């Protein structure tokens, strides 16, 4: 992990914010972006995010296996500290692995579509899906887990 962290420091020192300066959604004012959530990997929960927060993004294959999703019915529970670390919820292995990678890289926030987009609010889902290019572009790091056939593959 030390080598990966060294690469990230080199990248940040060489490129700075110029790589991401135009990626924040245009409607962001005072740092607030509607519907933008992240997983706080230190607190183990979903949080409402600010546009200027640094984060890691996960790109992965959903597949057909059932997995935990952010829904109107479980939002309050997923926003509680340690919710994603508790036995109350079962998290797909790929997402668990991404949380661990984010922690080991000493980053605080992770964006995962299934847990950061309200899956049963179709207006929100449509809006955020339309901005996914900005979300991935704005990420300091994107983890690509493309080898598995579903989110449970790890």
Give a description of the structure:
The structure is a single chain. The chain has 154 residues and is an alpha/beta fold. It contains six helices and five strands. The chain has one domain. The protein is 32% helix and 18% strand. A five-stranded mixed β-sheet has the order 2-1-4-3-5. It is globular, with a radius of gyration of 15 Å. The model has no long low-confidence stretch (mean pLDDT 87). It holds the Pfam family HET. It comes from Glonium stellatum. Residues 55-151 form the Heterokaryon incompatibility domain. InterPro entries: HET (IPR010730).
Order of helices and strands: HEEEHHEHHHE
Question: How is the largest sheet built, in terms of strand order?
Answer: 2-1-4-3-5
DSSP helix fraction: 25-40%
Strand % is 15-25%
Average residue-wise pLDDT:
87
Main sheet properties: 5 strands, mixed
Shape: globular
Structural class: alpha/beta
Unreliable stretches covering 5 or more consecutive residues: none
What value does the Rg take, in angstroms? 15 Å
Number of domains: 1
Task: Work out the helix count.
Answer: 6
Total strands: the figure is: 5
Distance between the termini: 18 Å
Protein name: Heterokaryon incompatibility domain-containing protein
Organism: Glonium stellatum
Domain Heterokaryon incompatibility: 55-151
Pfam family, one: HET
């Amino acid at each position: 992990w030390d080598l990966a962290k060294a690469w990230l420091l080199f990248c940040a020192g060489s490129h700075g914010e110029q790589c991401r300066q135009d990626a924040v959604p245009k409607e962001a004012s005072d740092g607030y972006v509607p519907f933008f959530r992240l997983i706080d990997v230190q607190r183990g929960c979903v949080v409402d995010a600010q546009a200027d927060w640094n984060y890691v993004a996960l790109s992965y294959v959903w597949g057909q296996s059932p997995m935990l999703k952010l829904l109107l019915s479980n939002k309050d529970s997923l926003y509680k500290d340690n919710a994603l670390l508790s036995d109350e919820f079962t998290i797909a292995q790929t997402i668990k692995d991404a949380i661990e990678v984010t922690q080991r890289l000493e980053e605080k926030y992770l964006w995962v579509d299934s847990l950061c987009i309200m899956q049963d609010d179709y207006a929100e889902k449509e809006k955020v899906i339309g901005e996914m290019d900005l979300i991935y572009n704005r990420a300091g790091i994107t983890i690509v887990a493309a080898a598995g056939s579903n989110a449970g593959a790890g």
